[in-house]
Amino acid sequence: MLIVSTTYDPICPMASAKVARQAFEDSRLIEIKGYGHCSLAQPSLCMARHLRAYLEHGTMPDYHTVCDGDRPYFHPHETKMSPRHVAGETDDDKIRAAQLAMSEVARWRRRR
């Protein structure tokens, strides 16, 4: 089993991710250095590469792999950062565009 979590997840803290890793034999943990609930909160190409290797080839990362986030948790929403402007020809460009799109889906909307 591959477990993915952010360092400072307010719902599922890193301590719980480590307990899960110990509870499931041969499981591995990818920690994204950042904030927010779930791996979608903090886009990370490093994490995406490990996840892709796991899903496509069954390749497991190290016991506890730490990846940096690709941008700050709180960032200005800029048109130039939109997925359609990031998408390119390489697989990394496409992964980056998909991660940006998924991280923006959960933006909080103000209720009136």
Verbal overview:
The chain is an alpha/beta fold and 112 residues long. The protein has one domain. Helix content is 38%, strand content 18%. It is built from four helices and three strands, in the order βαβαβαα. The chain has a three-stranded parallel sheet with strand order 1-2-3. Strand 2, helix 2 and strand 3 form a beta-alpha-beta unit. The protein is flat. The termini are far apart. The mean pLDDT is 81.
Topology (elements, then pairings):
Layout: E1 2-8, H1 14-23, E2 28-35, H2 45-57, E3 64-68, H3 83-86, H4 91-105
Parallel strand pairs: 1-2, 2-3
Largest sheet: 3 strands, parallel
List the total number of helices: 4
Helical content stands at 25-40%
Shape, per Cα inertia axes:
flat
Total beta-strand segments = 3
Task: Summarize the structure in short.
With 112 residues, the chain is of the alpha/beta class.
Salient structural properties:
alpha/beta; 4 helices; 38% helix; Peptidase S33 tripeptidyl aminopeptidase-like C-terminal domain-containing protein; Pept_S33_TAP-like_C; AB_hydrolase_fold
